[in-house]
Amino acid sequence: MRSRLRIVLVRPRDPNNIGASARAMKNFGFADLAVVAPWPPVWNEAVSAVNASDVLLNARRCATLAEAVADCTLVVGTADPGRFAGKSSITPAELATDLKGSDHLPALVFGSEKHGLTNDDLSHCHQLLSIPTVDGCPSMNLGQAVAICCYELRNETRRNEPGIEWATAGEIEAALALAMDVLGKTDFILPGNEAELRGKLRRSLLNRQLTKREVNTMCGALRRIGSKMQD
User: Fold this and answer.
1) Which has the closest alpha carbon to 102: 145, 72, 59?
2) Final residue of a domain: which of 153, 184, 211?
3) N or C: which terminus of the chain carries fewer CB neighbours within 10 A?
4) pLDDT tens for each residue of 184-224
């Protein structure tokens, strides 16, 4: 079983789609499923996944997307590119190529059937992925989208020998919290602007694909600055 890729479903609303996603994962050798803030009745009904009941049984239920991807080093959000004009995206096949021989622990994030991923959700993602479709019908069923991605990634997500130690999403979030604390102490954050600034800084940090060493250095510097400000 290839456990290296994590599939994350954010606020799913149809139990059949959760089951279909679990089955698609099992079809192509994946088992790591996390479900973020599912509507309780939906989660309770998501019991049908032919030959993939173990994927559902072992799925993690998380309160937030940050929690679901905290230990991942590459978080890829899925979206219709038409919703995010000006933002570049990759295809599942291109992601498979990028992952070949890499040391990343990747997560592939899917939004709810009704609204997809929000801007805040995407601020937690290093990259944006879109499945090429015809212009007149860009939206896909959640289970089908998961199946296509798992098929493309089936051979390219095996762990290799340790190489680059990439920073995890959780470590980036910890550095962001330190940065926001320091900026707050300098009155840099305008009233009512904290959430927007946090999202912008998170995207900036994720875009740089930092290593653990770089994040540790950044956190050390921020702690020293914060300490000096209290003296």
Assistant:
1) 72
2) 153
3) C
4) 988 888 888 999 999 999 999 998 889 999 999 999 999 99
- CA dist 188 and 180 (Å) reads 9
Q: What is the pLDDT of residues 15-47, one digit of tens each?
A: 889 999 999 999 999 999 999 998 888 777 775
Question: Parallel, antiparallel, or unpaired: how do β-strands 74-78 and 127-129 relate?
Answer: parallel
Which residue has tokens 């079983």? 1
**Degrees (nearest 5) of the Cα angle 188, 195, 224?**
45
Would you say the pTM of this structure is higher than 0.70? Answer: yes
List the domain range (segments joined by +) for residue 41. 2-153
Domains contained in the chain, number: 2
